């Protein structure tokens, strides 16, 4: 699965290429691509923040299932 950090790296690569491009139309397309990669990164981060925290902790489960000794 692609991470928000990877999407942001793609956006940065588009901006680097945009700065080097000589053709205005190419610059415009690369700028739009960078914006879209950034939007994807933002959305992914928002979705991750909205997810409930995992309630399953395998360490606790093992500890809880071990019989207590008196």
Short characterization:
The chain has 70 residues and is mostly helical. Helix content is 74%, strand content 0%.
What would the keywords be for this entry?
74% helix; rod-shaped; 70 residues; single chain; mainly alpha; 3 helices
What is the tally of helical segments? 3
N to C succession of SSEs: HHH
How far apart are the first and last residues' alpha carbons, in Å?
47 Å
Helix-strand makeup class:
mainly alpha
Q: Helicity, in percent?
A: over 70%
- DSSP strand count: 0
**Into which percentage range does the β-strand content fall?**
under 5%
Shape: rod-shaped
| Average pLDDT reading | 87
The major beta sheet can be summarized as: none
Write down the Rg: 22 Å
Given as residue ranges, the uncertain stretches (5+ residues, pLDDT < 50) are none
């Amino acid at each position: 699965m692609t991470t928000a950090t990877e999407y942001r790296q793609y956006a940065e690569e588009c901006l680097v290429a945009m700065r080097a491009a000589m053709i205005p139309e190419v610059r415009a397309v690369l700028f739009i691509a960078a914006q879209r990669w950034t939007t994807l990164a933002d959305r992914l981060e928002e979705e991750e923040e909205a997810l409930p925290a995992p309630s399953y902790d395998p360490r606790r489960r093992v500890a809880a299932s071990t019989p207590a000794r008196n």
